[in-house]
Design goal:
Ribosomal Protein S5, domain 2; 4-diphosphocytidyl-2-C-methyl-D-erythritol kinase; Alpha-Beta Plaits; binds adenosine-5'-triphosphate; 2 domains; ATP-binding; seven-stranded mixed beta sheet; four-stranded antiparallel beta sheet; globular; nucleotide-binding; alpha+beta
């Protein structure tokens, strides 16, 4: 069995610029990888069948699974005769704004490139990934990047200043389509993407905290007051910067010191079942092998 790590992402910024004629939104997002990962196991099969083996009851185990779609796309496009059994060990909360499904698909593309011996570059895998979902290309590369278009156009950025991330997910799941459906672009908050890029390039922690922003946050906070409450708690307990990731409902906090991160996590435990303290994997040069 060949194992690949599928790490989650958070959005340091998420700006929605316009609704496109094709139904997608034009976005500008700065995404960075965090050290909370699903584990994908890949076992080639000679019968040509693609199979999902997952014990997680919250994700589909058929063609609706994004990892299945990744395998099916590669198999068809490159006329692969072999099949694969894909084992998904799920650690990333589902429907949380952390791109868990997209990252599983991206890891499946990277892993099958090896298992099926296809010899494709990451750039080629990212182009394929865009056919599966807008966040898949970023997840193919990992690290830190500016994503534009519908999210599939990737410009790599250096790693953000060193910090610790606290992730807290309320029990609710949020549908990205529902949040975009309720977004009013004329009144929404728009983060300053260029300022965040400068903060990252200059490794300026204060400027990074100051620049955190997400156009979708207002919609989700209005629909789900528990997310707003969680944000306020995280701030009160000592997080230096706090933002909702993606369309939510996961809220993340940023702190510089590990001891401070642990204090925030401990304080949150009584209020929120799913709390994680993770490091950033924001620098592509430093990604561990297998990610
Ligand atoms: P994003 O941040 O990209 O919007 P998300 O974190 O909000 O994603 P996911 O965890 O990717 O959401 O799940 C969204 C939906 O995708 C779920 O309802 C789930 O049924 C479906 N899905 C398909 N394949 C997977 C997978 N491998 N892991 C998780 N969800 C999957």
């Amino acid at each position: 069995m060949y194992f690949v790590k599928a790490p989650a992402k958070i959005n340091l910024t998420l700006d929605t610029l316009a609704k496109r004629p094709d139904g997608y939104h034009e976005v500008e997002m700065i995404m960075t990888t965090v050290d909370l990962s699903d584990r994908i196991g890949l076992e080639a099969r000679e019968d040509g069948i693609i199979e999902i083996v997952s014990v997680d009851r919250f994700i589909p185990n058929d063609a609706k699974n994004l990892a299945f779609q990744a395998a099916a796309l590669l198999k068809k496009r490159y006329d692969v005769s072999q099949g694969v059994s894909i084992t998904i060990e799920k650690n990333i909360p589902v429907a949380a704004g952390l791109a868990g499904g997209s990252s599983d698909a991206a890891a499946t593309l990277r892993g099958l490139n090896h298992v099926w011996n296809l010899g494709l570059s990451l750039d080629e895998l990212a182009v394929l990934g865009a056919e599966i979902g807008s966040d898949v290309p970023f997840c193919v590369y990992g690290g830190t990047a500016l994503a534009t278009g519908r999210g599939e156009k990737i410009k790599h950025l250096p790693g953000p200043p060193p910090c610790w991330i606290i992730l807290a997910k309320p029990v609710i799941g949020v549908s990205t389509a529902e949040i975009y459906g309720q977004l009013d672009l004329s009144t929404a908050f728009h983060p300053d993407t260029q300022a965040m890029i400068r903060a990252i390039e200059e490794k300026d922690f204060e400027a990074m905290i100051h620049g955190l922003g997400n156009t979708l946050e207002g919609v989700t906070l209005h629909l789900y007051p528990e997310v707003k409450e969680l944000k306020e708690q995280m701030k009160r307990f000592g997080a230096e910067g706090v933002l909702m990731s993606g369309s939510g409902p996961t809220v993340f906090g940023i702190v510089q010191q590990e001891s401070r991160a642990q204090r925030v996590v401990n304080a949150l435990r009584g209020f929120c079942d799913e709390v994680y303290c993770v490091r950033l994997l924001g620098d592509r040069e430093e990604l561990p092998k297998g990610v």
